[in-house]
Structures are given as C-alpha cells and as structure tokens.
Inverse folding.
C-alpha cells in the first residue's frame, strides 16, 4: 500500500497512497501512522511533501496530530454504513465497462494469489498472521467489517511474497470499495462470507492450491452476485 510514488504528482499520489491505506483498514481507527521519516522513505518523497499530504488528510478529518512522547499522526476515520444505494447505482453506470473489467481482473488475481500462497512453505508467524486476520473479520463490529474483510484479503496476497501482487489486490479493492460498501450488512451474508473465508484459510494452511483457488473463486462469485442483486 505504501509503495514509492512515481515521479510527477508526488503530493497527490502521497495523499492517495495514505488515504487508500486508511480506507482499506491497513491503518485502522486509533492507529498511529509510521513516523514521518519512515513514511517519507517508504513513499520515496520529501518530508515537506509528506507533511503537506498529511495536513490535507488532517483537514479532511482522516487523521489527527497528537503531541508528546507518544504523539504522532493518528487515524480518526470511521467508515460509514449509511451508503446511498442510488449513489452506488450511479457509480455503476459511470464505471460502465470498467466494472466488468475490474471484476474479471479480480476473479483471476485473487484465486491465483490464494493458490500460490497454498504452495508456499509458510512460517509459523505467517500462518498465525492469516488466522489472526480471519478471526478479526469474524469478530469485527458492523462498522468495522469492510475494513477487516479488506485486511483479510490483503493478508492472503501478502503471503505470496509478491509486493506487485499485493498492490494489485489493494488497487482492485479500492476500485470496488464504494460498491462493496453499498451491500447491506445482513447477518446471513456475513455468516456465509465467514464460512467461505474459513474454507480459503483451511486450503491455504493445508497446502491445497486447487482447494484454495476454488474456495476463493466461490467467495468472489458470491460477492459479485450480491453486487448485482443490490445494485441492479
């Protein structure tokens, strides 16, 4: 998520990178962002540019600054459940063919990532990390669920060891974020999703690439069906 920005619009891309990390829950509400020096180095921008970007995010209400020994920039963003379905439908219309493009890309990308992760010799720490993300998604409050779900999907991508693949999963999730937020939080849907997540994790941890691919594909198909149902 915090990969180096490209040359050109450094300020705009810095805002975009940090904002996407916040919206996807990489940095959840209450989390402290990395120190300025570290964050600027990871984004490959000057500290002046970073401060300008953080100032804009602070003005927009996404972060706040705290002073003192344990100070820094802290996330204040809280996802909203009050997503207007009509606005989402207009977004679908505006996206046009791009929506089918991103859904097709996702259905190739994420099952492949899960299958690749299942082939790797994961360390105990990596296995615990994936299980922790699974539990977080299952125990998340409704207003935190989408971010916890995003972190779960990103965790699988991270286990591939490919930063390019992880970035692609994150970018795809961001492109679909507003539409996913428009799906009502129904207990049956969340329970069904949790069962699918557990199947994905089980296949990855038991070294079953085809099972991981199949479980992930079934999960994505179910999400696409929900999108179609609520936004048609």
């Amino acid at each position: 998520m915090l990969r180096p920005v490209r040359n050109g619009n450094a300020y705009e891309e810095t805002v975009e990178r940090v904002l996407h990390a916040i919206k996807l829950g990489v940095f959840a509400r209450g989390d402290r962002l990395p120190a300025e020096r570290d964050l600027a180095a990871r984004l490959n921008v000057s500290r002046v540019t970073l401060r300008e970007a953080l100032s804009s995010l602070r003005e927009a209400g996404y972060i706040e600054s705290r002073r003192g020994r344990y100070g820094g920039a802290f996330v204040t963003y809280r996802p909203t459940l009050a997503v207007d379905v009509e606005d989402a439908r207009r977004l679908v219309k505006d996206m046009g063919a791009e929506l089918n493009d991103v859904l097709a890309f996702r259905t190739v990308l994420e099952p492949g990532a899960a299958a690749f992760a299942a082939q790797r010799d994961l360390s105990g720490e990596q296995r615990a990390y994936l299980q922790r993300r699974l539990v977080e998604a299952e125990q998340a409050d409704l207003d935190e669920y989408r971010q916890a779900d995003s972190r779960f999907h990103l965790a699988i991508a991270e286990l591939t060891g490919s930063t390019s693949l992880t970035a692609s999963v994150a970018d795809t999730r961001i492109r679909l974020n507003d539409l996913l937020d428009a799906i009502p939080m129904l207990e049956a849907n969340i329970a069904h999703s949790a069962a699918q997540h557990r199947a994905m994790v089980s296949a990855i941890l038991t070294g079953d690439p085809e099972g991981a691919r199949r479980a992930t594909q079934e999960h994505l198909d179910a999400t696409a069906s929900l999108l179609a149902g609520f936004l048609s």
